[in-house]
């Protein structure tokens, strides 16, 4: 059984008015056109829908049952139109957002809270992972937007992604509070040529960052410990096993036994960027999220100034 939606709406109008002429006036049809459409609907459904009498028409029991369903359909259609308007305006929708762990542990809560306050209808589906898996999820269109990071020597180059920098994340030094450089304003990397070093394990880019910067500073670092994350590296520094470099964003939580020191400009920052598939038109909701990211990052920069 198949019923034309327009004919269902015509039947609803006839039922409201009890007159084909009045329904025709409302819908801007001729009376004969209304009559023809009702006849076609009766043929589609295989039942009589209206009874004609001297003063007009009235719905049969079957006609009344159909109108009840038709009105429910109209309400659903109106709701659908409202949903589409909300989506088009960026007030609702789901954004699949990829982040890396140091951002998730530091600034992501501000992003989530800000989004709930400004656009409570937007749902954020967050996936936290390392950079390579995030890029793969972007390339397979499983993420709408993700954050990536790189250094000058390993810039992200992917024609399939649109990449925009949002934050320059300084490289900092972490030493024990009793280290001889703990009270220095700014530290040159060459001042640490005789120290033991704690680095991220598994070929992490920050380890290569240390090797490259140390080579520029004229020494080869002695690695004492390879750690799995930044909290572990802090614990190793606190235990007196060495010193470490890390991005400033990874120092949102600092152990009491260590201090964070600024490094000279010869140690470059990492670049944090938004990335999205180039061949997919971004939703308004994802653009609103990207705007909020810029706002949160700006606040973070001001707090670090």
Automatic annotation (TrEMBL):
Stretches of the chain forming a coiled coil according to its record: none
Superkingdom of origin: Bacteria
Signal peptide region: none
InterPro entries according to UniProt: LysR_HTH_N, LysR_subst-bd, WH-like_DNA-bd_sf, WH_DNA-bd_sf
HTH lysR-type domain location: 1-60
Keywords: Activator, DNA-binding, Transcription, Transcription regulation
Family classification: Belongs to the LysR transcriptional regulatory family.
The protein, known as: LysR family transcriptional regulator
Origin species: Rhodococcus cerastii
Taxon lineage: Bacteria, Bacillati, Actinomycetota, Actinomycetes, Mycobacteriales
């Amino acid at each position: 059984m198949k019923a034309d939606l327009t004919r269902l709406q015509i039947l609803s109008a006839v039922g409201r008015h009890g007159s084909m002429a009045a329904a025709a006036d409302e819908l801007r049809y001729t009376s004969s056109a209304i009559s023809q459409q009702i006849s076609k609907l009766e043929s589609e459904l295989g039942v009589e829908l209206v009874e004609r009498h001297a003063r007009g028409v009235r719905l049969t029991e079957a006609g009344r049952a159909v109108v009840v369903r038709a009105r429910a359909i109209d309400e659903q259609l109106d709701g659908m139109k409202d949903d589409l308007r909300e989506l088009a305006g960026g007030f609702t929708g789901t954004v699949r957002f990829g982040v890396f762990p140091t951002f998730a542990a530091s600034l992501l809560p501000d992003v989530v809270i800000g989004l709930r306050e400004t656009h409570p209808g937007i749902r954020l589906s967050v996936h936290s992972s390392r950079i390579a898996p995030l890029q793969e999820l972007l390339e397979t269109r499983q993420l709408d937007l993700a954050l990536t990071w790189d250094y000058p020597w390993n810039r992200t180059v992917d024609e399939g992604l649109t990449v925009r920098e949002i934050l320059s994340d300084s490289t900092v030094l972490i030493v024990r509070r009793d280290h001889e450089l703990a009270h220095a304003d700014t530290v040159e990397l060459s001042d640490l040529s005789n120290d033991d070093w704690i680095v991220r394990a598994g070929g992490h880019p920050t380890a290569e960052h240390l090797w490259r910067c140390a080579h520029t500073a004229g020494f080869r670092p002695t690695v004492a410990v390879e750690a799995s994350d930044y909290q572990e590296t802090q614990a190793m520094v606190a235990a007196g096993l060495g010193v470490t470099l890390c991005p400033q964003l990874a120092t949102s939580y600092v152990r009491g036994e260590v201090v964070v020191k600024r490094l000279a400009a010869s140690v470059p920052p990492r670049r944090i960027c938004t990335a999205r598939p180039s061949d997919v038109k971004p939703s308004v909701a994802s653009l609103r999220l990207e705007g909020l990211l810029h706002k949160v990052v700006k606040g973070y920069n001001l707090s670090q100034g």
